[in-house]
Amino acid sequence: MIEDTIVAISTPYGKSGVGVVRISGKDSLLIAKKMFNSKRELNNIKPNYMNLGRINLGQISDLGFMVYFKGPKSFTGEDVVEFQCHGGIIVTQKIVEQAIHFGARLAQPGEFSKRAFLNGKISLDQAEGVIDTINAESESELRASNCLERGFLSKQVNEMQEKLVDLLSEIEVNLDYPEHDIEYKTKENIINELKEISNKLANLLSTQKQGQIIRNGINVAIVGKTNVGKSSLLNSLLGSDYAIVTDIEGTTRDIVVGCIEYKGVKINFLDTAGIRKTQDKVENIGIEKSLQTVKESDIVLLVLDGSKKFDEQDYEITQLVKDKKSIIILNKSDLNIVEKPNFDYILVSAKENKNLEKIKEKIYSIALEGCNQNEKIVLTNLRHIEILNKAKLLIENILNKNIQNSLDCLSLDIREIWEKLGEITGNTVSEVIIDKIFSKFCLGK
After folding, report:
1. Sign of the C-alpha dihedral, residues 142, 144, 147, 150?
2. At residue 268, does pLDDT exceed 80?
3. Is the pLDDT confidence value at 143 over 50?
4. Do residues 222 and 236 touch, judged by C-beta distance below 8 A?
5. Is 142 strand, coil or helix?
6. Peptide bond into 341 cis (omega under 30)
7. Would the pTM of this model clear 0.90, i.e. be above it?
8. What is the 3-class SS of 413-439, one letter each residue?
């Protein structure tokens, strides 16, 4: 049982309309009563009600609200009190100081969520869903983290673990009553159940490509020779003058990165230095970075100047990206198009913002090709992916042996799978991993 009471500011540091200070632990209400004056009788405070009064800041006070959440019906599973005050930096700090003066201690980062986990209010993957929700930078990240926080993954993992427990029980019965000679049927059932669990794991793991895109965004390199309008295209796609645009060749010498959100997915555009032969050492460094960016990108936008005849350099650059997922952009369609390529392209005018939506839609469709956008669970957490891969490998190792091991050895193998899956929810995970996960949380959460 956790004996001490913790306190922290739960809202971001700075000035705001409202600030929230959270206290959790067995002495929460006792400490709060010493800090709060109200016309309402404090000895009869009802849980889940807003109480208006003056919050003690030392020699002064602030008008605000106190809310009491009685454990275990609270976020942490303990008695929790939240003060809602004016959102000033000094106001919230003073409330924390007063709580510490009356017996609380300052919470560690993520300690409220850790207590919720330790008290059985949330599983470990749900806690990770909470921090992912806080850190979400796109709608798709928010959807994925919301599914995690609501327990969709832990539900599937718990179901798989229950099936493994059933198998262990069946094995124990067989070992306890060998005279019934049902070992063959038991092994046959083990094979079928393990295959079913393996298929479920495969379905979950099939979402990791989509999860990687959700987590990192789609990295799109904008490539071409000098003065084809790469930086102008970047600015048009971003809707702002993000990159410097001039008529001077070699203006862009470093990678310029800009991001947008399209259909809930983050797209990272990387404007690169124009590729050409030059004696300028600095520009050559930029060109080398361009070539490296092409290798590391998910998709390449190859920009050609439609107002000029294609030359040898255009075709050389085309060869550089031939093994990449690429989209040919024929820019400067506001001018006379001199020559059209004999391959698929999108006719664009960066100057007049023409066909920009076609580019975004093409990027989106190429990057998410084959991904089911209606999946409730999308694996974005590398820890979860690693655990599920190892669990699937353990099952495959058993199936590849055609269940040749004795039942007592199979029992050990199945128990290992059960323990591995338990690392997702935190049922079998080590304290070191638990501490590492919650240390990533912000203070007050």
Report:
1. negative
2. yes
3. yes
4. no
5. helix
6. no
7. no
8. HHHHHHHHHHHHHCCCCCHHHHHHHHC
- For residues 363 and 91, give the distance between their C-alpha atoms in angstroms, rounded to a whole number: 48
Among 171-180, 310-319, 334-343, the minimum mean pLDDT is found in 171-180
What are the distances in angstroms from CA 150 to CA 70, 124, 428? 22, 12, 20
**219 vs 345: which has the higher pLDDT:** 219
| Percent of the chain at pLDDT exceeding 90 | 44
- Separation between Cα atoms, residue 196 and residue 424, nearest integer Å: 19
State pLDDT tens for residues 217-226. 999 988 888 7
For 46-108, strand residue ranges (E) read: 50-56, 61-69, 80-87, 105-106
Cβ neighbours of residue 187 closer than 8 Å, sequence gap 6 or more: 403, 407, 410
CB 250 within 8 A of CB 283: yes
**CA 221 to CA 215: how far, in whole Å?**
18
Structure tokens at 172: 């124990």
Which token pair is 3? 């004996």
CA–CA distance, 280 with 225 (Å, rounded to integer): 15
The contacts of residue 172 (CB under 8 Å, 6+ apart) are 411
334, 351 in Cβ contact below 8 A?
Answer: yes
Cross-sheet strand order for the sheet of 218-223: 256-262, 265-271, 218-223, 299-305, 326-331, 346-347
- 108-132 tens-digit pLDDT: 999 999 999 999 999 999 999 999 9
